[in-house]
Amino acid sequence: MQFVNFFPLLALVVISLAGKATVEAATGLNPPVKLVWHYYKLTNTCDDAETYIRYQVEKFYKNDSSIAPKLLRLLYSDCMVNGCDGSILLQGPNSERTAPQNRGLGGFVIIDKIKQVLESRCPGVVSCADILNLATRDAVHMAGAPSYPVFTGRRDGGTLNADAVDLPSPSISVDESLAYFKSKGLDVLDMTTLLGAHSMGKTHCSYVVDRLYNFKNTGKPDPTMNTTLVSQLRYLCPPRTQKGQTDPLVYLNPDSGSSNRFTSSYYSRVLSHNAVLRVDQELLNNDDSKEITQEFASGFEDFRKSFALAMSRMGSINVLTGTAGEIRRDCRVTNANYGA
C-alpha cells in the first residue's frame, strides 16, 4: 500500500491493495488548509504547549488507559458534527454533549485539567479544540498508534444544540456509513481506517441487541455474526423487554478488552465475522472497504500509516481560524459566560 507524507493540498492517489485492487483515496488535507504544524511555537505564543499537554496525558494514562478510546470518541463526536471547534466540550441543559448519540462520552475531565494548566502558563492562547486534538493523538500513541503530526491553530466555536447532532447509528449499512463520511469530506479509506478505532473501547448492549435477537425484524440473530460471538454477547446482553432496564457495556474488541491496546485485530475480527457492531461488519459489503480491511488485517503498519492521515483529515473538518470563533478561557463555557 502506498502512502505519501502530509502535504497541504488535496491529492488523489490510486492505492494498490495487496496487488489485487485499487482504491482512489486522498493523500493530504482537503483545501483550503488553514492549520499549521507547531502553531504555538511558530507564533511564539506558547512554545511548550504540546509538551504541557503530553505530560498531563501521560499522567492520566498511567492511571487509566481507557482515556485513549474515550478521547478518540470525544474527538470524533466533535469533528464529525459541526467541525473540530471544541463545541462538544461545552456544558448546558441542551448542549451537544447531551444528545442521545453522545451518551456515555468521557474524557472531559482530562481536557479541563489540561486547559487549567495551559491557562496558568499561557492564558487565553491555546484553544480547547487544539487541546482535544493533541491530547487524543498523545493518548492513542501511548496505546500503540503512531504519533502523527497534529496541525494546530484552531479556534473554539459556540454552543451547538443537541438536536443538531447528526452522528449516525452504529447499526447502519456500509452505503449509509460511506455517505455520511463523504458528507464530511472524507473517503472510503478514511472511513475504513477510522472505524478501526473500534479496536478499543466499549459500547452499550442497546446498540447490539438487534443483531443478537431480532435482526431486521426476523426474530433471529444477524446471520453474518459468528454464532459463538452471538452466544457470548447474549450472555452479556439479555433481551430488552422492560422499560428502565439496565444497559450494560461490552467491549468493542474482546481481543484487546481492558488492555485498550491499539491493534489491527479489529480487521481480523471483521473478516472472521466477529465484529460487535453492524457498521463494522458491514465493511465486507463494499468492494473497496473489504479490500482495505483485508490489507489492514495482514499489514498493521499500513493501518498505522493510514490512521495517521485519516486522523489529520478528520481533525481539519470545518475548523475555525484567524478571527473566527474565540479562545475559551474554560472549555466548559463560552467566554461570554465565563465567570457567570
UniProtKB/TrEMBL annotation:
It is found in: Vacuole. GO terms for biological process: hydrogen peroxide catabolic process; response to oxidative stress. Residues 1-25 form the signal peptide. Ca(2+) 1 binds at D78, V81, G83, D85, S87, E96. Its cofactor is Ca(2+); heme b. It comes from the Eukaryota. Substrate binds at P168. The keyword Cell inner membrane does not apply. Its EC number is 1.11.1.7. The record marks R73 as: Transition state stabilizer. Keywords: Calcium, Disulfide bond, Heme, Iron, Metal-binding, Oxidoreductase, Peroxidase, Secreted, Signal. Disulfide bonds join C46-C122, C79-C84, C128-C331, C205-C237. Pfam families: peroxidase. Binds 2 calcium ions per subunit. Binds 1 heme b (iron(II)-protoporphyrin IX) group per subunit. It catalyses: 2 a phenolic donor + H2O2 = 2 a phenolic radical donor + 2 H2O. GO terms for cellular component: vacuole. This is peroxidase. Residues 34-335 form the Plant heme peroxidase family profile domain. InterPro entries: Haem_peroxidase, Peroxidase_pln, Peroxidases_heam-ligand_BS, Secretory_peroxidase. Belongs to the peroxidase family. Ascorbate peroxidase subfamily. GO terms for molecular function: heme binding; lactoperoxidase activity; metal ion binding. Heme b binds at H198. Ca(2+) 2 binds at D255.
